[in-house]
TrEMBL record:
Protein name as annotated: Blue light sensor protein
Domain BLUF: 3-94
InterPro entries reported in the protein's UniProt record: Acylphosphatase-like_dom_sf, BLUF_domain
One annotated GO molecular function: FAD binding
Organism: Massilia violaceinigra
PROSITE patterns: BLUF
């Protein structure tokens, strides 16, 4: 089965508590497993960056549903391409809260989120591709 990787960024409409983030993660885990969707969500104090991996048509439908979620706004796709393999195969949805400076790869992830917010590249690479490369290694 072929898979796509879809990466999007959006802005939270309010500050998310740890409980809010846990609820988002649990709902995503419950919904994504049966859809054959894996991925990771990164929160940076008001901004979300999410990687979704799965069948292209499933991701298209899922993203349309995600866009309607009232907890965020200004959603835009940064990357939506076929992939040879999943970057996050073990997780129906992982969550990394970058407000916790102990997060693995913190500096690199903050740079990716900052670049995505500003719509700029990291060197010659898009933020989405830079994000995928961080976890590919």
């Amino acid at each position: 089965m072929s898979i796509n990787q879809l990466v999007y960024i959006s802005q939270a409409v309010r500050k998310m508590s740890p409980e809010d983030l846990a609820a988002i993660q649990e709902t995503a885990k419950k919904n994504n497993g049966p859809l054959d969707v894996t991925g990771s969500l990164f929160d940076n104090g008001g901004w979300f960056l999410q990687v979704l991996e799965g069948p292209a048509s499933t991701l298209d439908k899922l993203y349309k549903k995600i866009e309607l979620d009232p907890r965020h706004k200004n959603s835009r796709i940064l990357y939506n391409e076929p992939a040879n393999f999943r970057t996050f195969p073990r997780w129906s949805m992982n969550m990394t809260n970058l407000n916790d400076r102990q997060a693995d790869k913190y500096d690199e992830l903050v740079e990716v989120l900052d670049a995505a917010q500003a719509n700029r590249k990291i060197g010659s690479t898009s933020p989405a591709v830079a994000l995928l490369k961080i976890f590919k290694n």
